[in-house]
Protein 1
Amino acid sequence: MKDFQKTAVILFQLGGPDSPAAVRPFLYNLFCDPDIINFPGAFLARKALARFIANRRAPHVAERYNLIGGRSPIIDLTLAQAAALESRLNPAIPSKVFVAMRYWHPFTEEVVERISGNSYSRAILLPLYPQFSKATTLSSLNEWHRKTSSRQRLQSTFICCFYNHPLYIKAIVENINSVYAKFASHHPEEIDLVFSAHGVPVGLIREGDPYQLQIEETVRLVMEEGKWKSPHYLCYQSKVGPARWLKPSLPETIEELARSGRRHLLVIPIAFVTDHIETLHEINIEAREEARKLGIVQFEMMPALNNNPLFIECLADLVRRSVSNELLHLPSCRNLSDQKPHRPAPRLCPYCDTDRR
């Protein structure tokens, strides 16, 4: 079948260094992102500042990657997700699934080059960030527009988020249950479910970033679906720089639970759809070691969704609905905001005032 009859599905993801030598340039690309480093006059200082931060952080970050195999697994895991999704879509929806990484190969520009030589009928832009944020989803979308601005625009549809998709929620619950079974000798009330999401600066939330509202809704839906009788907590991780970020942090939460006599923790990386340095090192090595020092007896981590069949089916459902222009009617960011009027309105959500999903 010729490509002009196909749909190009573009999976946006963060990316990660594929070798020790890639750590420094990966960090430079990250901190050179105008959606990450932005302040008055930033365009004059951004590259120099990114180079300074990358040079300073690279040795420490490289040590962390060495402990998980010397490279980020996010590349292989995301390519596996793309292959699984492509298999799930074809032949009902003739498709080719591409991976566009934001800060390392395969870069967005590389994917644009690959699809430009073919006449695909449409492009579905699907960020692998379940919860929308300026620092992730919007950054990837802005990069896509920058790299396609000088080319003939391919008809494209943007899927902004899927934080409340029923299959996404079920996939998380399935993964939690696979680890929850390790606590079989303990009463549910003795087990603490610690949901850990990647943090963002509080300033982003004040600007109208819907990320925190969507994270909280994902946790609520997961707990509702899972029906566990264990207490649960939401915290944030991966803080960088002096700015104030969302709290409480993962280390603070573990310390508080240990101080109150809790001894059995199941940490759930709620905003990560693949395992990478934030799960494999920050949680499974750093947080685990700190928990042990604080007296935690059992520390378990839920694996990221990776190739969970329910998650792949979730992605396939999003693509199918996008192709057929069928909307999935789920509570919008405006609904979430109305329930929490003390929070900033989620103005950065592209569909804040519509029912579109």
Protein 2
Amino acid sequence: MTVPPAPAALRGSGVRASTGAALVGALIVWVALLGPLIALLAHLSPAAVLSSLRQPGAFQPLLTSVAASLVALAVILLLGTPLAYLLARGRLPFPRLWEVGVILPLLTPPLVIGLLLIFMVGPNTPIGAALSHLNLTASDTFFALVIAEIYESVPYYVLGAAAAFATVEPQMEEAAALLGDRRWRTWRRVTVPLAAPGLATALAVTWARAMGAFGAVLIIAYHPFGLPMQIWVTLQETGLKSALPFALVLLVVALPLPVGAYLWSAHARRRL
């Protein structure tokens, strides 16, 4: 016995109902994700923000965070880009081992990263002793803050950049090589421009992650205060409302670059 197909009208109503349910679910998730930001803006007034930012030294944690994040970003870009490219092209021996090495810091809780860094680069370790000969200390210094930010954010760049390089067809690089371009010239004129949208997004996300690094920073770089640490200290000393203006400053500085990079990346991909 064969069952006759449902009428087209019923099928259409079923599709519309499922689409409507999906839209409602998506709207709920979207509002829930933006809920903390909405709550932050709802509990802040321009007067409260101005009053907090007019305090002596209020901008020093911001300057410290920006400077440390820029240094961390430069180091990650310099050292992480070749690693990401080699991962994308499968040119490393035991590639899964390299991938695990990149993913593990991403999965490790930041507080644990800070604890482990103390045992790896702290003043009482061989690496710490070697650093002391260079007048560097990986504990409660600007240098320690940079190290903590690197370890908390580098996986985001390497994995994102590797995904960006993987979208570039190797045949494009081979064609450039056949036309006489050397490997560095091919990489600069072909590979990087084609991977640029993904690279920009990876770098911007890494910037936001470095600016917001806290767990490892709390352990090895309590001083000098960066902006996340300033938020924590203010919260402990004077309460939640006093910390909100600094939280807003952190969002204003950290988030526009990733959002802009994402929008530019999406626009660039549509044009390719």
